[in-house]
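User: Run a structure prediction on this.
Assistant: Running it now.
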Amino acid sequence: MKIIPLILLSSGLFCSEFNLEKTDLHQIGLKVWQNECRGTVDGLICWNNGEDFPSLGIGHFIWYPEGAIKKFDESFPSLMEFLSVELKDTDQKIPSWIQSKKGFPWKTREAFLKDKRSRKMQQLRDLLSSTLDLQIAFLEKRFSEGAETVASKLSEKELSHLESLKKTPAGLYVLIDYVNFKGTGLKPTEKYRGEGWGLLQVLQNISDDASEDAIVTAFSTSAKKVLTKRVRNAPIHRKEERFLAGWYKRIETYAKH
């Protein structure tokens, strides 16, 4: 599998709000890419067995095929809107079919795998591998926008935990990765038996006595509990217990960042 380095962002536009250095945001993006794609170009285009959708880019952004039921947040079209703005004054163009509102062109995983070396697939791979730095900026933007709404749902103590996490690169990695990984917890369809599993639910389940110095560990502990409950609440046919060990492994990177 080919592995290529990320390009450092050329401006501080997406670092200023959280007082992040460009190298810090670079490292966060690199870690998300590693979590989702093992840091490989081949991993930028994936359709996991048992899923109804492909996962694309360093954040494995979802793009549903036409006619699919959109239970989870479809983030790939938002990424394309973001890239369209960022690339408008450059020579790089996004192929029109990628910007289409019709959805992912391959309706089944089998058709996708059969066509994996096609011209369209190569165009998609080229776009994703040449916009790594902008995808990092999109990850930060997606978190920033979601966090504003999440903050309005939090108690004073829960809000203080969020603010503590936002103060350090390690805490921001936790937040950016988790929102990309499991969402904000605000989407009505992202619930089983009425219970969500996103950032909101993790913050709400952090112990009140968690100290600022130990907030990343407290977040990780809460996230494991929330995801364990998700698996317990999930429909039997989803067989989500098969994912839990991998989810735990990802969460354990939070304390190592």
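Residues 1-14 have pLDDT under 50 and may be disordered.
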